[in-house]
Design goal:
zinc ion binding; Immunoglobulin-like; binds phenylalanine; 26 helices; binds zinc ion; 5-stranded mixed β-sheet; 33 strands; metallopeptidase activity; 8-stranded mixed β-sheet; globular; alpha+beta; EC 3.4.11.2; aminopeptidase; 41% helix; Neutral Protease, domain 2
């Protein structure tokens, strides 16, 4: 069990940043592995930083460490020369000149249930150091602006740990007495401690190689649980494609002679970009057609790329402090999104990314956990690996590219790499490279990093046919967020087209009132008017094409105009958006009716628009699949914004789904039949798109009901030759409460028992079932032999999916869903505070609920807040949630 800090953690502030007083140039680690008593010897070359007073005490961070000895230049220090607690080692009066500090600590990897620092997973040893895990291995200046060259010697029993890995290149290895052996790794690139990694154990390996653009050969290795090697082929392929792409798109070549990835089954996050030794949650490595869905394949590709791309954006150039987290994360997400767009369909990728942005980031931005992309204060940094830092952070890079154009953007990136390679820098340094490379003033753009909240952009349009003039008036505002009551206007790039009656973009003459460059209107003032002359026909303005800014666009168009754009916009993103807007308008209306207990009205013109999309064979099937999906229940809740009744939303949405399924039954049946794939399974984007559309059709048929649809879905389940189809059929059957659901669930369980990642899907489908019995089912499943409170993937798939993927049951009117999650958070907090805190953030929209549920959610939060002890992680989330 973890020791839990009881005191209220004090806030860290960006404004208080000071350069480190001491620097550590090299560290030589000897790690003698033992399941409960691992001995770590760290020999560090330390010197005072410029400006540090002589004899300033040296304070090294620790966390739950047990100190064995301290030496300076080889001489053991007496007890009055230092002071040690598990969290801090102070050398009272260090030598004036450079010196060598040798510190010996003992750590217990088996007791490490929080999965930070050195821990065990499936009998193997592994480490996780971001953000502040290195201090759980040895005392160190555990901050990203201290860059050191690492040499790591690992010693272990040969039988227990035949494989010994660390960052960099293998420089030595051999046998030791008593059945032990050792390996020495050296990483020549100075790096912050958060990028340190070490892995040891019994692992299988898949090997390949890559030749870089300058002709260097790089060994590629993926290590997995023995026996799982055949499931690594797609990950390896994605890695090689990522390496090629970064050379072509950003001119970035890999720098070491070896690149290793290790898949582990116990991991708090998705994956980690440790230098030369990425550690992955195994769900983002392992795939074969029988066990992984098309979405899993796409995720693997994206995460492999993301971690690989960090080698330049994060590792070679790193963050000065953790406030700058978006410097590496937002930028690297942008890079992986661009990679996937180039590998697959750009429009489909953009729509999926924006869906994710809205459902996670917009929700976060609208509630008590809202924070700027670059926060200026934090209590627990682990709680800032958020949708805002990652996904909104990526949107800011995308806007930067829109503002500067592709060439300007590339010039800025090149200059950034040139100026800051090997440094730990800030968002200001990053933007300065773009400003300098292109001669652009980015001071207003910087506000995007500093101001939290989703700006609203209200538009009105007026067309004067005789004068052939179109006037668009924009008004921007940004709601108050914690600590930021008032916002300044931001630079909002609005990509646009004026769609004429034939669906083509109209040309126009002079533009007055605002800067328009290419297809972009630059809205920079609070109120901004732009007039286009020479507009020869009545236009429908298509605004914010490609979702060119992370804002909420309000007003401007009628339902008829959205319908027109849905059918005609040349920008596929805005076609999708137009359909979503139509659906959202309808659903908020029908939700109000359902809430008032009135019958839920239907809308034939909307059904016609859906039918037109479904049967338009000129459109990519993947696009059609996305366009046919209604906004999620949580998206509808966010749109409604206050007094939310999740049951009314579900009633309205289900009514519309069944109306669509009924009205378009013939189209869906024919889609289902014609999209059947004859060849062997391939995870490529086209094949995946056809499966997606076919499964959407099946789901609508089930939503409409009837025995024929149920029989079809049952056949789809049992006839499936891949996980995508099998899981889609099972999900539809379960959610439609079809009689065959039980049969499918039983079969699925028996078929995949013993495969934890697949059983996660089985947990998730049941946890998301929108029925009154689900909570007790989830409680019962916590006692299933495959479930474990100590494995983050199991917890996320059962408990996490219930909390975030089942709006009606988490938000049960009797409060039982809230209570269950509050108790789960408290239970988890004793073993893994990070996972507990993340689960607790499921409450982030509680204030928008109707009064009865709001009261029950608040009671559950207060119950958490009143518990002692609480981890700093949960303490931070609960106090901000209640603020
Ligand atoms: N830096 C990792 C990534 O985004 C995420 C991560 C953060 C992993 C903290 C573990 C711990 O690529
Ligand atoms: Zn990352």
């Amino acid at each position: 069990m973890t020791s839990v800090k009881n005191e209220t953690a004090s806030a860290v502030r960006l404004a208080d940043y000071r350069p480190p007083e001491y620097l550590i140039d090299t560290i030589s680690l000897t790690i003698a592995l033992d399941p409960t008593e691992t001995r770590v010897t760290a020999e560090m070359a330390i010197r005072r930083n410029n400006g540090t007073p002589r004899n300033a005490p040296l304070r090294l961070d620790g966390d739950e460490l047990s100190l064995q000895s301290v030496r300076i230049d080889g001489k053991r220090l007496s007890g009055d020369a230092y002071h040690a607690t598990p969290d801090l080692l102070t050398i009272t009066a260090p030598p004036e000149g450079a010196f060598t500090l040798t510190v010996e600590t003992l750590v217990d990897p088996t007791a490490n249930t929080q999965l930070m620092g050195l821990y065990r997973s499936s009998g193997n040893y592994c480490t996780q150091c971001e953000a502040e895990g290195f201090r759980r291995i040895t005392y160190f200046l555990d901050r990203p602006d201290v860059l050191a060259v690492y040499t790591t010697r690992i010693e272990a029993k040969k039988d227990d740990a035949p494989i010994l890995l660390a960052n960099g290149n293998l420089t030595d290895s051999g046998d030791l007495p008593d059945g032990r052996h050792y390996a020495v790794w050296n990483d020549p690139f100075p790096k912050p401690s958060y990028l340190f990694a070490m892995v040891a154990g019994s692992l299988g390996v898949v090997e390949d190689e890559f030749t870089t653009q300058s002709g260097r050969k790089v060994d590629l290795k993926i290590y997995v649980e023995p026996g799982k090697e055949p499931r690594c082929a797609y990950a390896m392929d994605a890695l090689k494609r990522s390496m090629t792409w970064d050379e072509e798109a950003f001119g970035r070549e890999y720098d070491l002679d070896i690149f290793m990835i290790v898949a582990v089954s116990d991991f708090n996050m998705g994956a980690m970009e440790n230098k030369g030794l990425n550690v992955f949650n195994d769900r983002y490595i392992l795939a074969d057609p029988q066990t992984a869905t098309d979405q899993d394949y796409a995720n693997i590709e994206a995460v492999i790329a993301h971690e690989y791309f960090h080698n330049w954006t994060g590792n070679r150039i790193t963050c000065r402090d953790w406030f700058q987290l978006c410097l590496k994360e937002g930028l690297t997400v942008f890079r992986d999104q661009e990679f996937s767009s180039d590998q697959r369909s750009r429009a489909v990728k953009r729509i999926s990314d924006v869906r994710l942005l809205k459902s996670h980031q917009f929700a976060e931005d609208a509630g008590p956990l809202a924070h700027p992309v670059r926060p200026n204060t934090y209590k627990e940094i682990n709680n800032f690996y958020t949708a805002t830092v990652y996904e909104k952070g990526a949107e800011l890079i995308r806007m930067l590219k829109t503002l500067l154009g592709p060439e300007g953007f590339r010039a800025g990136m090149d200059l950034y790499f040139e100026l800051h390679d090997g440094e730990a820098v800030t968002v200001e340094d990053f933007l300065a490279a773009f400003a300098d490379a292109t001669g652009t003033d980015l001071s207003q753009f910087m506000l995007w990093y500093e101001q939290a909240g989703t700006p609203a952009l209200a538009v009105t349009s007026a067309f004067d046919a005789t004068a052939e003039k179109l006037t668009l008036t924009f008004e921007q505002s940004c709601p108050p967020t914690p600590g930021q009551p008032v916002k300044k206007p931001m630079h909002i790039p609005v990509r646009f087209g004026l769609v004429g009656p034939d669906g083509q973009d109209l040309s126009y003459g002079a533009v007055a009132g605002a800067t328009v460059t290419g297809d972009t209107i630059h809205v920079v003032d609070e109120r901004h008017r732009v007039t286009f002359s020479g507009v020869k026909a009545p236009p429908v303005p298509s605004l914010l094409r490609g979702f060119s800014a992370p804002v909420k666009l309000v007003g401007g168009l009628t339902t008829g105009e959205f319908g027109f754009l849905a059918g005609h916009d040349s920008d596929p993103f805005n076609r999708w958006q137009a359909i979503q807007n139509l659906a959202m308008g309808l659903l908020t209306e029908t939700t109000a009716a359902a809430h008032a207990g009135k019958p839920v009205p239907s809308d034939d013109s909307f059904l016609d628009a859906m039918g037109a999309i479904a049967s338009d064979t000129g459109l990519d099937p993947a696009f059609r699949a996305l366009a046919l999906q209604l906004p999620g229940e949580t998206d509808i809740a966010r749109d409604i914004g206050e007094d939310v009744d999740p049951d009314a939303i579900a009633t309205a949405r289900n009514a519309l789904r069944s109306a669509i399924g009924t009205a378009l039954g013939d189209i869906f049946r024919s889609l289902y039949d014609t999209l059947a794939d004859s060849g062997p399974y391939s995870p490529d984007a086209d094949a995946a798109g056809r499966r997606a559309l076919r499964n959407v059709a099946l789901d609508y048929l089930l939503a409409a009901g009837g025995e024929a649809a149920e029989a079809r879905a049952r056949d789809h389940y049992f006839g499936a030759d891949n996980m995508t189809d099998r899981l889609a059929a099972m999900t539809s059957l379960v959610h439609a409460a079809a009689p065959a659901a039980r049969e499918a669930l039983t079969d699925f369980h028996d078929r995949f028992a013993g495969d934890p990642l697949v059983i996660d899907k089985w947990f998730a489908v049941q946890a998301a079932a929108p029925f009154a019995g689900t909570l007790s089912k989830v409680e019962e499943l916590t006692t299933h032999t495959a479930f474990s409170w100590s494995n983050p993937n199991r917890v996320r798939s059962l408990i996490g999916v219930f909390a975030t993927g089942n709006p009606t049951q988490f938000n049960r009117a009797d409060g039982a869903g809230f209570e269950f999650i509050a108790n789960a958070v408290l239970k988890l907090d004793r073993s893994n505070p990070q996972v507990a805190a993340r689960l607790l953030s499921a409450f982030r929209s509680w204030r928008a609920l109707e009064p009865e549920r709001r009261e029950r959610a608040e009671a559950a939060l207060r119950q958490v807040a009143a518990t002692t002890p609480l981890s700093a992680d949960v303490q931070d989330i609960v106090s901000r949630s209640l603020d």
